[in-house]
Amino acid sequence: MSTQPKKNAKVTINTLREMKEGNDKIACLTAYDVSFAQLLDDAGADIVLVGDSLGMVIQGLDSTIPVTMDEMIYHGQVVSRGLKRALLILDMPFMSDASTQQAVENAGRFMKECGANMVKLEGGADQKELVETLTRLGIPVCAHLGLQPQRVHKLGGYKVQGRDAVAAEKMLNDARVLEQAGADLLLLECVPAELANKVTEQSGIPVIGIGAGNQTDGQILVLYDILGISAGRIPKFSKNYMQQANSIQQAVELYIEEVKSEKFPDNEHTFN
């Protein structure tokens, strides 16, 4: 029996777990303003992420690193005003979680000032204690493995992660540690499809992919990428849905439909 949430029912952590158990795919997109947030909500997006990707697609920066807490708060507040149904996640920007106290204060601001339902943290097993603390305080966490844009200089560029056996085993272990620490959701970015499938199979929490094949529990893309309006090159793992649509609304609905039916991503938009 399908566990897809009803059109107007608020999506919660329990909803996402039920969707994973029922093998119903979770459709997610980014948003940065109220107009697009409302459009995504009406189209049936399950999760809306206010990503620090706004630094690149809104501000024209070369990376996400300069994005500030105040900027994230502003965009989080305006996006939340457009949502009734979708679960709202906000990215913790670079250096906003440098200490546990700082992370708790900033995550708390997201929950109190923006109405966030969850915060997203980049990092592996090194984030274990922080995830445990946030969980204990009632702040849901989405962990983020694979390509981590805030660590792009340490990673040596925007490259697929987990291709060798050692890196793959580390990612599998990181996923286990973060789930045990209390993470409620896991995002995998730019990961070979076979490895993403292994992570998804071992995880008791929903796994969302971006450039991670179609065997994860859901997909997320940057809204501006699927509309073909992002400045610069659109990533290999994304798809311009405006090429098949007559309106922005139709493009978003088509993306959601293809995620739900497992048509997206296909081999063209997958790393092996």
TrEMBL record:
Its EC number(s): 2.1.2.11
* Subcellular location, principal: cytoplasm
What processes in GO biological process is this protein linked to?
Answer: methylation; pantothenate biosynthetic process
Task: Provide the reaction this enzyme catalyses.
Answer: (6R)-5,10-methylene-5,6,7,8-tetrahydrofolate + 3-methyl-2-oxobutanoate + H2O = 2-dehydropantoate + (6S)-5,6,7,8-tetrahydrofolate
Kindly indicate whether the keyword S-adenosyl-L-methionine belongs to this entry.
no
> Which pathway does it take part in?
Cofactor biosynthesis; (R)-pantothenate biosynthesis; (R)-pantoate from 3-methyl-2-oxobutanoate: step 1/2
Catalytic residues, per the record, are E189
Q: Per UniProt, which keywords does this protein have?
A: Cytoplasm, Magnesium, Metal-binding, Pantothenate biosynthesis, Transferase
- Cross-referenced Gene3D superfamilies: Phosphoenolpyruvate-binding domains
Taxonomically, which superkingdom? Bacteria
Q: Which GO terms describe its molecular function?
A: 3-methyl-2-oxobutanoate hydroxymethyltransferase activity; magnesium ion binding; methyltransferase activity
User: Which CDD domains does the entry link to?
Assistant: KPHMT-like
Which prosthetic group or cofactor does it need?
Mg(2+)
The record's listing under Pfam families reads: Pantoate_transf
Where Mg(2+) binds, per the record, is at D52, D91, E122
Q: Which HAMAP family match?
A: PanB
Give the similarity note. Belongs to the PanB family.
What quaternary structure, including any partners, is listed in this protein's UniProt entry? Homodecamer; pentamer of dimers.
Question: Main role?
Answer: Catalyzes the reversible reaction in which hydroxymethyl group from 5,10-methylenetetrahydrofolate is transferred onto alpha-ketoisovalerate to form ketopantoate.
- NCBIfam families, from UniProt? panB, PRK00311.1
Q: What is this protein called?
A: 3-methyl-2-oxobutanoate hydroxymethyltransferase
Q: Which organism is it from?
A: endosymbiont of Galathealinum brachiosum
